[in-house]
Design a protein that fits this description.
With about 525 residues, the chain is mainly alpha-helical. It has 3 domains: about 10-180, Growth Hormone, Chain: A (Up-down Bundle), CATH 1.20.1250; about 200-250; about 260-500 and about 520-528, Growth Hormone, Chain: A (Up-down Bundle), CATH 1.20.1250.20. It is built from 20 helices and 2 strands. A two-stranded antiparallel sheet has the order 1-2. Helix 12 packs parallel to helix 14, helix 13 packs antiparallel against helix 14 and helix 13 (about 330-350) packs antiparallel against helix 18. The protein is globular. The model is unreliable at about 500-525 (pLDDT under 50).
Length: about 525
């Protein structure tokens, strides 16, 4: 047992840097992708630059969460930082799209370790009355990374080289690694247990088949009804069913299924899943809408999400501060209602004539509704499980949010494409193959594509208007997600964060009592 006290300030700095690095890399690549394709080629494969990272992170997240419960947080956080740095360096040296895709997967494995362990360490390190504020601070990092990622990616690509959007992770990661290595001292004996290899393999196989099916489905040669696409989903269903059976009988399961018997835990997971879908719909389609309606380039719209993400940052901070005073249900009901209002404004009030200022206000409402979840759901989840499951529980929040985003991208993309193509086919004088050529219509926003297609200006503007209407159609459907999330928020019951009334002198910090130990005078993190 390491009895040394952790240097809290340095640990927090190291965790913030690690989380910022991982979250930043999910957004910084987007504005550089056009340049990367020009340099490396592989236009038909570029989507896998995003998908490889996401798939690897989704598969790695619950496994690293479980391992951190068994063998300690520190070693797996450091391993995640190392893998992320190694993957970043390799990405910067890639000379073709295939290499870049493989190296992004290495980054994703590292990210799968960083995301859940960061929040678990914070929960272990700080006493109850400080956890809300700290979770709010760390939740705000997601919003900041989304703001700075596209801007930083465009700036670095235009002024230095696209390779430096990956190399920039090296100094950030090294500082994070050194801070945690030197300042974080775990004071808790972690139980040694056998690794559930069967469960890990079944889970990884099932998630891989599901994610590949979602990514490939609807593309050329992979129609949704084609045997190869259907077989991926069937394989995913079979493997995940076998995983559930294996976990039921495993001595030390990767995911303890009994946790889902807790109403608060299950509700938190489902809200995270649904909010992931709302966020990806907003982050994906708001920039496209503004790019088309206001005739902006992709680079010019790199800052368009700033109002929404600033709302996320503010809301995350508020959520962290009020969580000790109100029930989880009360806070999340307000969050879900705010998100319903924001989604309704985007889907049913906004149209092609709406001004940028009004759209900005709508985006702020979306951000305010969403940000609370980044801080509160981690607290409600981690506080509702025994200490030996905190790593797994934290990883599942990230897992469900990411799966929600992946499903959201696919389902909303299919809906938007169908709506757009139906509108194009109904246009007077439209050729039968026009809808098939322009697919979902996003390519129409590229001036080079417009020039290549040779479509008259008046027809092109009509097509872009149809694209705008198809995006509004997506926002209308997206209202369902916060409505369902509201139901789960109501099911959270009367649980709230248990704040200690009085702690003996010398027991003011988690590291002084033994990491993860409850503050004296409080029976548990959450009172239900």
């Amino acid at each position: 047992m390491d009895t040394r006290k952790s240097n809290t300030s340095m640990v927090v700095a190291g965790l913030l840097l690690g989380l910022f690095m991982s979250a930043l890399d999910q957004t910084i690549v987007s504005t550089a992708m056009t340049t990367i394709i020009k340099k490396l080629g592989g236009l038909d494969k570029f989507v896998w630059v995003y998908s490889a990272y996401m798939i690897a992170m989704v598969v790695a997240t619950p496994i690293f969460g479980k391992l951190s419960d068994m063998y300690g947080r520190k070693r797996f956080f450091l391993a995640g930082v190392f893998l992320f740095i190694a993957g970043s360096v390799l990405c910067g040296t890639a000379f073709n799209m295939e290499q870049l895709i493989v190296y992004r997967a290495i980054q994703g494995i590292g990210g799968g370790a960083l995301m859940p362990i960061v929040f678990t360490i914070i929960f272990d390190l700080f006493p109850q009355e400080k956890r809300g504020k700290m979770m709010g601070l760390f939740g705000a990092v997601f919003g900041l990374s989304s703001v700075f990622g596209p801007i930083l990616g465009a700036t670095i690509t235009d002024n230095i080289s696209w390779r430096w959007i990956f190399y920039i992770n090296v100094p950030i990661g090294l500082l994070s690694f050194l801070f945690i290595l030197s300042a974080y001292h775990e004071s808790k004996n972690h139980r040694k247990a056998s690794i559930d290899w069967l469960g890990a393999l079944l889970l990884a196989g099932g998630i891989l088949c599901l994610m590949f099916g979602l990514e490939l489905g609807g593309s050329e040669g992979w129609a949704w009804s084609a045997w190869n696409t259907v077989s991926l989903f069937v394989a995913a269903g079979v493997l995940l069913l076998l995983f559930l059976v294996a976990e039921r009988y495993a001595k030390d399961p990767i995911i303890a299924l009994q946790l889902f018997g807790k109403r608060l835990f299950t509700s938190s997971m489902m809200i995270s899943f649904l909010y992931g879908g709302v966020m990806i719909a907003s982050a994906t389609y708001i920039p496209l809408f503004i790019q088309g309606v206001f005739h902006k380039t992709a680079t010019q719209t790199s800052t368009v999400l700033i109002p929404m993400m600033l709302g996320v940052v503010v809301s995350s901070q508020i959520g962290g501060r009020v969580v000790g005073k109100l029930r989880f249900r009360d806070v999340m009901v307000v969050s879900a209602l705010t998100l319903i209002v924001g989604s309704t404004l985007l889907g049913f009030v906004m149209d092609l004539s709406t001004s940028r200022l009004v759209i900005t206000l709508f985006m702020i409402v979306i951000g305010l509704g969403m940000g609370v979840s980044f801080s509160l759901l981690n607290i409600s989840t981690l506080g509702s499980v025994p200490p030996q499951y905190k790593g797994s529980a934290s990883s599942l929040i990230t897992f469900f949010r990411t799966i929600g985003s992946a499903l959201g991208v696919t389902v909303f993309g299919a809906l938007q494409k169908h709506e757009f193509q139906s509108a194009v086919q109904s246009m007077p004088g439209a050729s039968p193959d026009m809808a098939a050529k322009i697919k979902g219509g996003q390519a129409l926003l590229d001036p080079a594509v417009q020039a290549k297609m040779g479509i008259p200006a008046n027809v092109m503007q009509l097509l872009i208007d149809k694209l705008g209407h198809s995006i509004l159609y997506i926002f209308q459907w997206s209202v369902l997600l916060p409505v369902i999330a509201l139901v789960f928020a109501l099911l959270m019951g009367n649980a709230r964060l248990e704040t200690p009334q009085r702690a003996p002198q010398g027991a003011g910090h988690g590291e002084a009592q033994g990491e993860g130990a409850p503050v004296r005078g409080e029976p548990s993190a959450v009172r239900e």
